[in-house]
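Hello,

Following up on my earlier ticket. Below are the four sequence lines again, exactly as submitted.
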Amino acid sequence: MPFDPKAGQFYRMPIFFGPTPGPRQWPEGRTFDFTKTPHMKMLGVRMLTNADQLKAMLPERFELRGPPVVTVEANYMTEIGWLAGRGYNLCDVKFEVTFHGKAGPVHGTLVLVRWENLCDPILSGREELGHNKLYCEIPEPRVIDGRHSARMSWLETPFLDINIWDLAAPTGMSGPPADPEHQGMLSYKYIPKTGDWGEADVEYVTLSPHRPMRENITIERFELGQGSFQFWKSSWEDLPTLYHIVNAFAELENHGFQGAHLVQTVGGSSIAETYRVD
Amino acid sequence: MPFDPKAGQFYRMPIFFGPTPGPRQWPEGRTFDFTKTPHMKMLGVRMLTNADQLKAMLPERFELRGPPVVTVEANYMTEIGWLAGRGYNLCDVKFEVTFHGKAGPVHGTLVLVRWENLCDPILSGREELGHNKLYCEIPEPRVIDGRHSARMSWLETPFLDINIWDLAAPTGMSGPPADPEHQGMLSYKYIPKTGDWGEADVEYVTLSPHRPMRENITIERFELGQGSFQFWKSSWEDLPTLYHIVNAFAELENHGFQGAHLVQTVGGSSIAETYRVD
Amino acid sequence: MPFDPKAGQFYRMPIFFGPTPGPRQWPEGRTFDFTKTPHMKMLGVRMLTNADQLKAMLPERFELRGPPVVTVEANYMTEIGWLAGRGYNLCDVKFEVTFHGKAGPVHGTLVLVRWENLCDPILSGREELGHNKLYCEIPEPRVIDGRHSARMSWLETPFLDINIWDLAAPTGMSGPPADPEHQGMLSYKYIPKTGDWGEADVEYVTLSPHRPMRENITIERFELGQGSFQFWKSSWEDLPTLYHIVNAFAELENHGFQGAHLVQTVGGSSIAETYRVD
Amino acid sequence: MPFDPKAGQFYRMPIFFGPTPGPRQWPEGRTFDFTKTPHMKMLGVRMLTNADQLKAMLPERFELRGPPVVTVEANYMTEIGWLAGRGYNLCDVKFEVTFHGKAGPVHGTLVLVRWENLCDPILSGREELGHNKLYCEIPEPRVIDGRHSARMSWLETPFLDINIWDLAAPTGMSGPPADPEHQGMLSYKYIPKTGDWGEADVEYVTLSPHRPMRENITIERFELGQGSFQFWKSSWEDLPTLYHIVNAFAELENHGFQGAHLVQTVGGSSIAETYRVD
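Thanks for your patience. The regenerated structure is below:
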């Protein structure tokens, strides 16, 4: 039976075996309660930087929104349904932007890189959603004397340290403040055209809207405090697939760290609501 | 400076940092002598199976070529230039086909799956070349009493064992026989359309031609012998992203193993010559 | 300055560098609050077996105490002080015994094997405490549909599965019942005599008393339910350093699983109170 | 059947399961041809340092022999019989000494630390032979432009880099020069006494003689060249079990690197000939 894709089903390479199981497609009859899965623990730090440096990374029609603050956030996930209860970790570098789409402006978070420590969600995230995912090692954070320390590395070469401390539950807040105009996570999907190097098979912006995920999530722990992060300046020999990214982040001017957060949540979404924004 | 791709350069997600280093693009001025890099050690086993089972995996315009023999081959690579001298391993499942392209038939090897134990070449291979790569663990083979044993696993769950033994250098042969009509490795590139699930952004066949690689490669060891492989029948819980593939292979009828090979080579190619076949 | 050990300090190979940092010795001035560190999550299953099989494992002067119930328990630890806030995991196989010491009987738990996934505490535990530790891989448990699944493996070869389910907090109990006569964890310390194979440099029983640890520990979660475990029968080729142990456990008769527990705690001890029992 | 050790057999914790399989004891009837196993690839660098710094590490009755040259050598082993054909890697830091034993002086190499990337041989080596083994990660070396680079790390924290280059087979030499007075590898076996911290259960010097191993080994590749190594100065937080050792090495004065070697061999020994030297 030759490959015969059906509307509403998910397919990824290799297509020789029919519909592809993954974050948005499970065995026949299998469902998950997204108010109870997954569990997430997020460690984030914000840094004020030079607006021109952030703008230099933006493709056309993207605009920096608000102060030039870059956030680095590690997220440790467990009890993930589509992985049959396993977990994996990720680390985002991101800032706030407006994308001037044909149907009007879209305010959201541009995730420049989402590092993950498992290849399977990297493939489905890049190809299905346009999420700008790459691989690195993300071991469990160290916790001592109230200080949480996370380190990212690639094949035993560390390139990013995150530290947060002096954490406490803020009075009168049970979670991060909501921004009613903020629509979600913006990504830039790009697939090269085989053989015509420099040209694209696919090139468009995607939006993963906040709404379905936010409705499912319960915040179990929300603390604010101090924090810092540091990218290690690296050579091609150290990080042959990441040095250009790590060095771009290492060169961001530090105009002051803006605080840190620790958030633990239960619940999520398959993010199948992600769509193309022209 | 917004994203501004140049012809002849390679770009992959995330595109915010300019040209992307990878297997076919290195730092300014850096080159590799592809007659001396990489080093490869391949362990392969061939099995005669039911032709109808192989045909059932073929997309339109593909035809089984010759007897229904599937080859499972593990390849251990070291001294890879674009990884600054690191190595990684891969494992192919493949058989011989003819693709009936618009410009005529193309005879080649259809690689149904290429498992690799490093995410970076999986991303570049899928997106640039259409190679049907997935992740698994591929530790070094065990060697005892002249028997080489390779095992593939995913997050500590084994799913494929390869064993080869009774190996000896064949008289009068210094390498595998050449097939003048065989053009290279065929793959099926497919990228889903974000939000329109079941539809494709990209869907075409690619050919990675043999010629440039073969001209560079020196065979250092070539031995033939006996061998077997076994896929472990698996549940969704065991292998939530691979069970449908592993079980399809586990169900292939065994009409007799057809021998094994051990080949060690030096040299290779960036495979930038890969092109789309309509 | 030649090696000059001081009373009260801890030394292990290599001794060329002075006192050895480890679970019971930290940098000058560094202390930990053992009521707040480490965090532990334990998954345990009990199985009734054939008393003769357990007795056959006992050295002289050890006696089976109570019904022949063997417990398999995985323990996932984080925020460990002496590892500067890192964690590691362990998995015990154990049953209740009486050791007839010269000063009278000692009732305790004989830990036949404590597998750990980090070499450093294995070395200090074996050599300082006589704990019968060995290495294996202990990834985080999978959790789906209220079922927790743990798997132990060695170099990608799985050998033990633990499953627990139907968990609920028991009414009227906030923790496991205390046994006033139970004194702690019993181990059998044995170090071979170099060159005189079959003879021992060290051979005695040790007791790690419960008391200091129990006083420090706060139980955060205590649930009881159903469970099972299974050891995989293995060959020397599969597990060349563990097959004799794994097969001994695989051969234990299953006279019925006796329930499972999930316990989460905060607090602990350095176990420096461990002593030799003659 | 209680524990009943037999002369000539090997036992290690846990002793509840009879004789312990390991590097010097295999299943009934199983033997290995030590002229064909294992395969080893060694990368070594020598550095002249301050004699007083080396002397400061020496226990009583040890004396520095010859110039104060410390050697750092990584060794990548495959096809190891007792691991059923698997491999593992090690990294030594060592220098030449004379031990003044009761029966006269013994000239040998004092291995201050042997790091290994597998726990099983660490346990048997420490307890049976007194070898001063510790755990670290030892990935395959990188090789590019004729330069071999090895890096040691512990839980993603690098602490030692070795680089060798300009390698060539020396004329008129097929292997390292033999020193007729050199007897082998010296170690300092030390096991603490449980509960009497600072006192020892075991404390003596061992010698692993060269002879049996050297008779079995065939040198397949022998090249000399340039090299360097560097220990990274580390904090307790970075390397809570290794910082005191790594920093002692980082503080060694560099009075000039003395060249590097790359040696590939086949063959070995169980080193069961190791004995105590009083």
